[in-house]
Amino acid sequence: MGCCEDGGDMDRTVAKALGIPVEEYCQALLKGRVTVERFERGDVIDGVTLLFPRAVFRYQGRWTPMDLEK
């Protein structure tokens, strides 16, 4: 299954936060050039305890966190 500029809500949200077109983000994701680091509820980051799981998306020196509600 491919991804295009009509990607899902999460694809559009992450691409916008990274400041890149959705199509570029999706292609990079499919080719393994986007890395995702996941943190779980209760993990402590910079002295703050997370209330929700969080994913950090990294691509070409850019990064954006996204809290995951479920």
Overview in brief:
The protein has 70 residues and is an alpha+beta fold.
Contiguous runs where pLDDT drops below 50 for at least 5 residues: none
Classify the secondary structure makeup into a structural class. Answer: alpha+beta
How much is the radius of gyration in Å? 13 Å
List the helices and strands in order. Answer: HHEEEEE
Summed over residues and divided by their number, the pLDDT gives a mean of 90
Q: Determine the number of helices (DSSP H or I, runs of at least 4 residues).
A: 2
The percent of residues in helical segments reads 25-40%
Main β-sheet description:
3 strands, antiparallel
* Spatial strand arrangement across the major sheet: 1-4-5
Distance between the termini: 24 Å
The overall strand count is: 5
Give the overall shape, derived from the CA principal axes: elongated
Strand-residue proportion: 25-35%
| Subunit organisation of the chains | single chain
